């Protein structure tokens, strides 16, 4: 992941280069956000497992998947391991959120420096204009030349 300092050190020479760098920043932002979402789902799964096995007898048999292999353990052995894994996942999520905020700030600075404005696709712009015009277009009012 390139930082804004690295990007500025190789100052873009034209609009295409600015657009390419902006696109890569946006891609990085999306990748970080996707990873955060994935890890949050994993943390939720860990919470479900913890809540399910916590009230059980500690000597009860329990199965756990480790590296694609299903192993037999006891609740006493599995519960602390699952809790540690969940804490580790939550720590990674925290770091990724910090990274996400830094990247958002870098992207905002880049947008300000190069005066980047996002254009909406033509169909979205037409929809927006239709909404701004009011409900006359949605009521089927046609305006033609006066006779």
UniProtKB/TrEMBL annotation:
Record has Endoplasmic reticulum as a keyword: no
CDD domains found in the cross-reference section: Prefoldin_2
UniProt-listed Gene3D superfamilies: 1.10.287.370
GO cellular component: prefoldin complex
Domain of life, source organism: Eukaryota
InterPro entries to which the protein is assigned, alphabetical: PFD2 (IPR027235), PFD_beta-like (IPR002777), Prefoldin (IPR009053)
Pfam families: Prefoldin_2
GO biological process per UniProt: protein folding; response to cold
UniProt similarity note: Belongs to the prefoldin subunit beta family.
Protein name: Prefoldin subunit 2
Origin species: Trapa incisa
């Amino acid at each position: 992941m390139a930082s804004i300092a690295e990007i500025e050190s190789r100052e873009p020479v034209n609009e295409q280069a600015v657009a390419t760098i902006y696109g890569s920043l946006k891609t990085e932002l999306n990748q970080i956000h996707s990873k955060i979402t994935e890890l949050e789902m994993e943390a939720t799964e860990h919470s479900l497992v913890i809540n399910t096995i916590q009230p059980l007898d500690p000597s009860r048999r329990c199965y756990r998947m480790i590296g694609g292999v299903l192993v037999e353990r006891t609740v006493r052995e599995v519960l602390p391991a699952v809790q540690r894994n969940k804490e580790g996942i939550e720590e990674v999520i925290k770091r990724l959120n910090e990274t996400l905020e830094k990247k958002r700030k870098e992207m905002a600075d880049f947008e300000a420096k190069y005066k980047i404005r996002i254009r909406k696709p033509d169909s979205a712009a037409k929809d927006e204009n239709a909404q701004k015009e009011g409900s006359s277009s949605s009521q089927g009012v046609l305006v033609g030349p006066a006779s």
